[in-house]
Every structure is written in structure tokens, then in C-alpha cells.
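Take a specimen:
=====
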Amino acid sequence: MGSVSDILNEKQKHSLHSTHPHETVLAATQKMNEHSIGALLVINDEENLVGIFTERDVLRRVVAAERAPSSVHVGEVMTREVACCRPETSIDDARSIFRQHRIRHLPVVDGSGKVQGLISIGDLNAHHSNHQEVTIHFLNEYMLGHT
């Protein structure tokens, strides 16, 4: 069925959005709104992944806690334990990671831990749907004898 790198290749036109642990929640959420995305990777000065900042973090750790977005830093409210995968991870294994961790965003890192991209459950579903359409097309062609 393919690997996560197939999904990343399909997304090449999209840039990877990130934030810094010292950025305010207000600035980070404005960036998320500007790009219509639900998560930002949190990267430190050494370019290492230190967390992920999601809409869920905003709701649980800022809004519900009645904290001011303009005075809270991303590093205070981000999710620190981040499930990741590698580009060679199979799509089925990635789907299992999404399901087991109950997440919607999955960073992709290489063997040295460098971020290669970010996939969402929506990306996974779109890839699956496209794959199914191609399969249906070829089966139709086969059944109608147009091979």
C-alpha cells in the first residue's frame, strides 16, 4: 500500500509550519489561522523537535485554564511527548500510530531525528481514497476487457 514518504511526496507543495517554544500562544494560533492548519511543530534553536502545538492544546491548557494567550508561551502548553514515524513507515503502521495514540498529526523524522514533514489523519485518508479510486478504475477496465 505504500509508505509515509509517498504521502510526503504528494504534499511537497505545502510548506512545513513550525513555531518556537518561546513564541506566545497568541502568535502561534494566529499562524495556525493564517495557514488554516490545526498543529505546529515546535522546534528549538538547535532545530530539534521538542513538541507539537495543537488546537487541542489551546482548548485544554489555555482556554479551559483561563490563561491569556498573549502572555503564555507555546513551550508551557505544548504536547511534549510526540509520537513520530519515519518516511519508510508503512501507511498501515502510520494508521495504527494515529489510532493507538488518538492523534490527528504525526511528525515524520529521519534516522537522525531531523524533521522531514508532518502528516495528518486527513492526509492519510486522502491517500487511501486516491489509492482506492485507482484500484476501482483498473478493476473496471479489467472487467470490461479494456486491458
In short: Residues 121-144 form the longest helix (24 residues).
